[in-house]
Amino acid sequence: MITFRLITLVVMLAWVGRCGAAQAPPGIVQPVAMAGMIAVSEPRVRLPANGLDQSAAYLTLTNQGTIPDRLVRADSPQARKLELHAHIQTGDGMLTMREIDYIDIPTNGSIALTPGDLHIMVKGIKPALKLGETMSIRLTFASGNTAQFQAPIVANPSALDQSLRKEAKGHQH
Amino acid sequence: MLISQNDRGAASENAGRLYRILWRWHFYAGLFCIPFIIILSLSGATYLFKNQIEAALDAPYNNLTLSGSTQPVSVQVNAAVQSVTSSRLKSYRLPQNSNDAAQITLMTPQKDVLVYVRPDTLAILKTIASEDRFMAVVRTIHGELLMGDAGSLIVELTASWALVMVITGAYLWWPRTSVGLAGVLWPRLRAGPKVLWRDLHAVTGIWVSGFAVILILSGLPWTNVWGDAFTAVRQATGTASISQDWSQSRAREHNDMTHDGTHQFEHRDLIASGVYNSSIDDVAASGRASQLQPPVVIFPPSAKKPDWRVMSQTQNRPLGITLTFARDDGRLLDTADFADKHPIDQAVGIGLAVHEGALFGILNQIIGLLTAFGLILLSVSAFVMWRKRAPVGVLGAPPSIPHARIGFGLGAIIIGLAIFLPVLGLSLVLIALVERIILIPFFRGARLWLGLSPMTDPMTGKGAVL
After folding, report:
1. Average pLDDT of the residues of chain B
2. How far is the C-alpha of B58 from the C-alpha of B56, rounded, in Å?
3. Contact call for A44 and B95, based on CB within 8 A
4. Spatial CB neighbours of B124, under 8 Å, sequence gap ≥ 6
5. Separation of alpha carbons B170 and B289, rounded Å
6. What is this structure's pTM?
7. Which residues on chain A are in Cβ contact (under 8 Å) with B72?
8. Any residues with CB less than 8 A from the CB of B61 and at least 6 apart, and which?
9. Hey, is the C-beta of B371 within 8 angstroms of any chain A C-beta?
């Protein structure tokens, strides 16, 4: 019957449309450097606390190509050593840090180094860094490509939050 | 279903009475529904193309030529908050492209404000109250006719009575005397204007009715009365979801966010310097890397929800995902996607996506648009027929016939519908009361004009208005 065929046609078109209904996800911020097809974006180094010469650096790596790659090394002339670290959740819910050898970057995908997950441990920072300055970082990948860029020094959230939580006049924290 | 009589003449008389009963109900319900169905169809048809329309409206703020590097999200947020007095961050929407303006929603004591910020110079490009956005206004027209809860009730009544119109309309349409399918599945264009308008109405009705029923049923969770009853039934039967993720009115949407009092951050510092604490810059980076369906919105910690949330607010709800990151150290606490939802919530989510034209791409939008056009054509053709046929001096309802009865089957259907659609049941009771207490004893002239039955037999219950 016509109606049955019409319904079947609509359902088939709907199914086809369904597969194509997904939209492109929000894109990455403009990269600061490229290593082959790997884009480095949003780099930031946290301000070390008074007296400490260690800190953490975060960034996003995006593989815009189809060949897998991995971050294997990081260094900086302004610090003695940079290591790749991961936060691992242990059985009792505690977070521990562990050095890792590499970070895989998925093809046509991104991996974000963020607190609570992956980061670059920066050790032996010298001379001391201040807000508004930058740290020169070079990343080396398994493919042999490198990326060099300036990462801004950013404040830690406990200081940032005050400005984000600007409330009604007269209501101070 | 009809009164069982072995006499064929009596049976066809009963069929005629039933036809007349349903036709009169179809007419009276139509008088109420027509203006609101036109409003709902126009606003709904517009809302179907929300993404395309908003992309066009936002075009001046997207694909900008940047004059420097992009500032961090936290700096963009700060610029927005500084530009609106007494404001704080409600949400940050990830820009689709790196050279789009950031869309930042701020809370103020009165209302939410949307601020467009250039990512490079931090210039404020546009500031508008969220509820004043074009598609927000369209949505408020569609959901509550710009009249708050009273409007929402009218919309729910329209939807409920529209269902009655589909059912009675299908009965009226059923071919009895037609030859072939002309006037049944396609209109007779050359049989004169009276037949043409009747056919336009009946033929459009039968083609659109299935889709109209889908629109009505899928929209019910958004209503106040049915929506609250639905939630109550689910709680009573133990099938409730943890939290409802569709909203029922503007007032409720606002209340959910205004109880956010002072934040008392307790830092579980792994290292006291806070280098392992998470800021909005980190959550935004995680959100981007997760490649969720747009629009992707970041919510900072609040009193009700103490962790960061990155939420895909896609209208295609089966593709929606919410990521929860710990407030302090930013580790991923939870990934909630469609499959995690209760099956009832999944069904409601699919219904809402179909209703908004977002489940299966452009075809969904087109089907919705054609349904809206069909409903408008139904309304217009009904109005034309009414004006052409109505005698001078009366409303023009199809005349009642004597001894009209509601049989057991029809009565059961009416009661079933009245229970399933509470506002329908309440309005039926109200109509019966008004008729019996006000119109029958008084206002005889009004009764005649309305075309109500002159019979006042108290034994027939609602028989007088049939």
Report:
1. 88
2. 5
3. no
4. B79, B80, B83, B115, B116, B117
5. 52
6. 0.86
7. 42, 44, 152, 154
8. B100, B101, B116, B125, B126
9. no
